[in-house]
């Protein structure tokens, strides 16, 4: 089945249209049969993981600055794949590992290679110093 999406309204409309064939009823049945561990998992993700993650992220940005911390957000898919393989037994293929290593290399490259000063360049004065 091929779906062409041209706007958010069509996505919602498409979702409602698919609900007519019983998928919405199956989703509602799954929600009604949710037990205490399922509710606990949703609450953990919603509050502990999300608030803890954003709190840690904000703290790191405050301490080190956004330009230093932001590149590490690119590591999320790599750690997601690794966690899925470790905790859920998902298969991890060689191309996944190679792609992850390329991403890690790309994230670490600016920290490992210091730019050389150009010939004739003058270092900027420290902030707050009078010239």
UniProtKB/TrEMBL annotation:
Keyword field contains Electron transport: no
A matching Pfam family: EamA
Membrane spanning residue stretches: 38-57, 69-87, 93-113
Keyword Transmembrane helix attached: yes
Domain EamA residue range list: 37-109
Alphabetic keyword roster: Membrane, Transmembrane, Transmembrane helix
Entry similarity comment: Belongs to the EamA transporter family.
Name this polypeptide is given: Drug/metabolite transporter (DMT)-like permease
Species per Swiss-Prot/TrEMBL record: Catenuloplanes nepalensis
């Amino acid at each position: 089945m091929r779906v062409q999406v041209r706007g958010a309204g069509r996505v919602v409309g498409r979702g409602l249209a698919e609900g007519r064939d019983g998928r919405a009823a199956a989703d509602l049945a799954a929600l009604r049969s949710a037990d205490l561990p399922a509710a606990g998992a949703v609450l953990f993700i919603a509050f502990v993981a999300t608030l803890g993650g954003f709190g840690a992220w904000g703290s790191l940005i405050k301490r080190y600055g956004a330009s230093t911390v932001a590149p590490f957000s690119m590591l999320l898919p790599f750690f997601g794949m690794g966690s899925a393989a470790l905790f859920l037994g998902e298969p991890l293929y060689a191309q996944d590992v190679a792609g992850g290593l390329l991403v890690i290399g790309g994230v670490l490259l600016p920290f490992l290679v210091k730019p050389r000063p150009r010939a004739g360049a003058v270092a900027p004065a420290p902030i707050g110093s009078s010239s």
